[in-house]
Design a protein that fits this description.
By secondary structure, the chain is an all-alpha fold. It contains 32 helices and no strands. The chain is elongated. This is NELFB factor.
């Protein structure tokens, strides 16, 4: 059959008899048994010592095929070992010459399942497989599949489209994994999107697979970076920036100097990676990072495009923003203005480089974005005044009652604060992190005071997945406040519900929050929320699924009709039951 034919493909070219030849011999002969014996002698294993042993095996009922197969397997193992050994011994030119000769002789048998592993092994050890052989492998789906990654790299480096087809599903998977974490049903302040350390993240399946595909091949590494840049431009999805940094650091972990030494971002990324691990930029590392930025030479400004992409990674932004908030608190204690703190200015410089990544790569104009003076002279001092307000209020609360000045908590926000959050991207990012900070401190007063400023923010940042993921996590710390109608009205009606109908992701985050906290919410409020959050025809599957989960949970909480009808009888005075005294 055709299967048989494939099994012995290529034997004839080498002058080795196959099934077809036996068929021909038998068709044209007068004494079939003699012919078979002769065929066996000519094509059997040529070892004199075996001639007497074979009939002995026949007596034991061992089929010749089984015997030949076991000899063959044994020989193949030996050959595979030998090929791997040749690849390591002698002078470089000589060993590769040997392997090339071996490939020349064996390649015609590459379709034979039994021989294929040997041919593949020879190719795997050749740093340059002849172009003609690569083309033949590429043209055959099954051969291409069976190839070692070492051979595929040689094919990919001259076939960007084919490499793109291999990489594309991995990149899709990566983005999906990130989104699943952001929308996960586990809401916690301890375990959030930013909890895993950089080292842990780099062990992820996609990063490991890409690292393996790239090997030490700079050309393939460049191609992957090009894919990431293109996708980032097309989608504005910042997770591609994370992958850009993770990939470089994964190669760094493996000490692939061939690549690390030629990526101009390597040392900067390595230093930033250490900051991300600590979730803080300390003074020593700040100096180092500044040195890299100041060291960008004339004519090499293009590296800013890459650095900005590294800084646009949400894990980097998170670290820079947290460090900024910490610095501002320190400045309040030291009575120092933001413009007098070089460390703070550096953090802002890196934040604006990161936030400007998309524009820079899109416009191909490689220069650092201008920092608005007002950010430093007006906005940050305003945040510091909020810190002071909290401090004053808390001190006042602690005074003995006769000295209390009955200072109400300031409920209004400066109009300038709202304007900054709408018009200035960096101000908005820092403002949002300040709000996360006060929520984490369970500072309900400050939270309710600043919340109205979140309804309209720069490019809707307050409704972005990362912010809402962190906010919902931090709000679990204010769980008890959800029993208060007023708090719920501010949070839900005043903030979340303003965007639910136009932003599917906000709808999802509110449902996540309620799934987690529904038992704490004022019952009347819960009813109206359940109505307000009902999915529409346009809602996606995720929203419907979450809404159904919530409905099920709420159904379980409702008292059964039997309990409801019995309530009136409880109004009778209860008989007093003596409490049993402990004996």
């Amino acid at each position: 059959g055709p299967g048989q034919a494939a099994m012995y493909a290529g034997l004839q070219e080498l002058g080795v008899a196959n099934g077809e030849d036996l068929k021909e011999t038998l068709t044209n002969c007068t004494e079939p048994l003699k012919a078979i014996e002769q065929f066996q002698t000519e094509n059997g294993v040529l070892l004199p010592s075996l001639q007497s042993a074979l009939p002995f095996l026949d007596l034991h009922g061992t089929p010749r095929l089984e015997f030949h197969q076991s000899v063959f397997d044994e020989l193949r193992e030996k050959l595979l070992e030998r090929v791997s050994a040749i690849a390591l011994e002698g002078k470089v030119e000589e060993r590769y010459k040997k392997l090339e000769d071996l490939l020349e002789k064996s390649f015609s048998l590459v379709k034979m399942p039994s021989i294929q592993p040997v041919v593949m092994c020879v190719m795997k050890h050749l740093p340059k497989v002849p172009e003609k052989k690569l083309k033949l492998v590429m043209a055959d789906k099954d051969l291409y599949k069976a190839c070692a990654v070492e051979v595929k790299r040689q094919i990919w480096q001259d076939n960007q489209a084919l490499f793109g087809d291999e990489v594309s599903p991995l990149l899709k998977q990566y983005i999906l994994e990130k989104e699943n974490i952001l929308f996960s049903n586990d809401i916690s302040v301890l375990h959030n999107f930013f909890s895993p350390s950089p080292k842990t993240r780099r062990q992820g399946e996609v990063v490991q697979k890409l690292t393996q595909m790239i090997g030490k091949n700079v050309k393939l590494y460049d191609m992957v970076l090009q894919f990431l840049r293109t996708l980032f431009l097309r989608t504005r999805n910042v997770h591609y920036c994370t992958l850009r940094a993770e990939l470089l650091m994964s190669l760094h972990d493996l000490e692939i100097s061939e690549i690390c030494n030629v990526d101009p971002c390597h040392k900067f990324t390595w230093c930033l990676d250490a900051c991300i691990r600590e979730k803080f930029v300390d003074n020593k590392r700040a100096r180092e990072l500044q040195g890299f930025l100041d060291g960008v030479k004339k004519g090499q400004e293009q590296v800013l495009g890459d650095l900005s992409m590294i800084l646009c990674d949400p894990f980097a932004i998170n670290t820079l923003a947290l460090s900024t908030i910490r610095h501002l608190q320190d400045l309040v204690g030291q009575d120092t203005l933001p413009r007098e703190s070089p460390d703070l200015l550096l953090l802002l410089r890196m934040l604006s480089l990161g936030q400007g990544a998309w524009d820079m790569i899109d416009s191909q104009v490689f220069k650092e974005p201008k920092m608005e003076a007002e950010l430093i002279t007006k906005f940050l001092p305003m945040l510091m005044s909020f810190v002071v307000d909290d401090y004053t209020f808390n001190v006042d609360q602690k005074l003995p009652s006769e000295e209390k000045g009955q200072v109400p908590y300031p409920s209004t926000i400066p109009e300038a604060f709202t304007r900054f959050l709408q018009e200035n991207r960096i101000a908005c990012e820092i403002g949002l992190y300040y709000i996360l900070h006060i929520t984490k401190q369970r500072n309900k007063n400050a939270f309710l005071r600043l919340l109205p400023a979140l309804v309209e923010t720069f490019s809707d940042l307050a409704f972005s997945d990362i912010f809402l993921h962190l906010l919902t996590g931090n709000l679990t710390l204010l769980g008890d406040e959800f029993a208060l109608e007023e708090f719920c009205t501010s949070l839900f009606d005043g903030f979340f519900l303003t965007a639910c109908s136009r932003k599917e992701n906000v709808h999802r985050h509110v449902l996540r929050l309620l799934l987690h906290l529904h038992h704490k919410v004022a019952p009347a409020k819960l009813d109206s929320l359940q109505k307000a959050l009902e999915p529409t025809k346009q809602s996606g599957e995720a929203v419907k699924e979450l809404y159904n989960q919530l409905t099920e949970k709420l159904e379980l909480r409702k008292p059964s009709p039997a309990e409801v009808t019995e309530t009136p009888s409880m109004e009778l005075p209860l008989p007093t039951v003596p409490t049993p005294t402990s004996r």
